[in-house]
Design brief:
About 85% of the residues lie in helices and about 0% in strands. The protein has one domain. By secondary structure, the chain is mainly α.
Length: about 450
């Protein structure tokens, strides 16, 4: 394993930096990847096409959810197995991830490609956006296998600590997407169809590079689906561990489906402005999430090794880092909101509304890192029920009822405030679980990492 020293005994601040920095870049790369279509379609000046990308986003979220479900669960299982020295479980978990990727992505691809218009209508498309949304969905559906694979196996690769390899694969795909977007969208006048094709080709390249990682490097993991089919219990474990992270994206997609039927009442322009404001502020929250994603394998490894003292140190320092980074990025997003929005549009009608929405949307960002930390911590600790509760609370139990309640009492303005209020509620719940977790570690006499024969008292 490449980074066992980093996981087990390296200075915690240094280890967090080594793992989190590439992960932050990786999540930002994914963010740019998701934004590229909106940025270049916005240049057409057609609000219906911009809205179509937003309306189709639940399907893209479903794809990302499958990748997170499979990859997140496999990452936790593999890192935990490495910590306990069980190489057979590593092979079983990675093979299981391959099997689940093939079967689940094929089913989604077939459904979306066969029924793009009914799905577009279900997602809230009206007469002005139905055609654009259906065309975008067809091509995005075709690319489901490579989208799910690139997401899932970037997680498998990082479970071994090879963050730079995962980052490089995702970065290459993003560059190809960004290069192809203007060529297909404007140069070849393909519009939303060109955006979808560029996205699929970018994911295909990322998938190819991840496959090369397994072909060229010595690793305990495998791409063989047959290795995963040998242990049905491992398939179940992957799904259980990954569900908590995936349910966030699943509920986000379901929330979009429900809320789009309300947004569309105010016209395609309002959907477009809201989408642009959300994309512009997404950099901050995704960077914060990247820290939690990066340290998750180290948490899983130390749980497997029984090193509670190191877990306590990781928890303290990562929580401080999350809040500090969240505060700095929120300030930057507010101060530079106009230049950020200009990346997407200069439309005289969309910009003022987007400028109003963005500061509201980032109100909870300084603290939202605690939610990500608690979610990935519980997933790494193999506590899927708690992790699922945190995910469900943020995107389902809080966001959906608050959205409709605020709309009832405050109209359109209430829609802008629903997400940050839901985020703050989720942060309070996450903080409570992190405090409870910290009490398990403080004052305990615990074993040091595998290979040491002494004990250490947690301060």
């Amino acid at each position: 394993m490449q980074n066992e020293t980093t996981f087990a005994s390296e200075n915690v601040w240094k280890a967090i930096a080594k793992l989190a920095v590439p992960a932050v870049f990786m999540t930002l790369v994914i963010t740019v990847y998701n934004m590229a279509d909106v940025i270049f379609i916005a240049q057409t000046g057609d609000a219906a096409q911009i809205a179509a990308v937003s309306l189709a986003s639940p399907v893209f979220m479903l794809q990302m959810m499958l990748g997170t479900l499979i990859g997140g669960g496999a990452c936790a299982a593999i890192a935990n197995a490495l910590g306990s020295g069980d190489k057979a479980a590593v092979r079983s978990a990675s093979g299981g991830a391959s099997f689940l990727t093939l079967t689940m992505s094929a089913a989604v691809a077939a459904a979306v490609m066969l029924f793009p218009k009914p799905i577009a209508s279900f997602l809230g498309a009206d007469a002005s956006t139905l055609g654009f949304t259906a065309r975008y969905l067809f091509w995005i559906g075709l690319g489901t296998p490579v989208t799910v694979f690139s997401t899932a196996f970037a997680n498998v690769v990082r479970s071994e600590g090879a963050m730079l390899s995962a980052l490089g694969a995702n970065m290459a795909g993003t560059v190809v997407n960004i290069v192809l977007d203007p060529i297909f969208i404007s140069g070849l006048r393909m519009g939303v169809t060109g955006a979808a094709v560029a996205t699929v080709l970018g994911n295909a390249l990322s998938s190819a590079l991840l496959i090369l990682y397994f072909v060229r490097r010595p690793t305990a993991a495998t791409l063989s689906p047959a290795a995963g089919m040998k242990d049905i219990r491992m398939l179940g474990k992957i799904l259980v561990l990954g569900f908590s992270g995936a349910v966030t994206q699943l509920l986000a997609g379901l929330s979009n489906i429900l809320t789009n039927h309300v947004w569309i009442l105010y016209g395609a322009g309002v959907i477009a402005a809201s989408n642009i404001a959300g994309k512009a502020s997404l950099f901050a929250s995704m960077a914060i999430m990247g820290v939690a994603v990066g340290i998750q394998p180290m948490i899983s490894y130390n749980y497997g090794a029984g090193n509670t003292a190191r877990l306590w140190e990781i928890l303290k320092k990562s929580a401080v880092l999350m809040v500090a980074l969240g505060s700095a990025l929120t300030a930057a997003a507010f101060l530079f909101r106009a230049p950020l929005l200009s990346l997407f549009t200069d439309d005289a009608e969309l910009v003022p509304l987007a400028l109003h929405i963005l500061p509201i949307g980032i109100l909870a960002t300084p603290l939202v890192g605690l939610n990500y930390l608690a979610l990935y911590w519980m997933q790494a600790a193999e506590k899927p029920l708690v992790a699922m509760l945190l995910s469900v609370a943020r995107q389902g139990l809080l966001l959906i009822p608050i959205f409709f309640l605020f709309h009832t009492f405050f109209g359109l303005e209430g829609l802008f405030w629903a997400a940050p209020v839901a985020d703050l509620g989720a942060v309070l719940l996450s903080a409570a679980f992190l405090l409870r977790e910290s009490r398990r570690f403080r004052g305990a006499v615990v074993p040091l990492p595998v290979g040491r024969d002494s004990e250490k008292t947690v301060a």
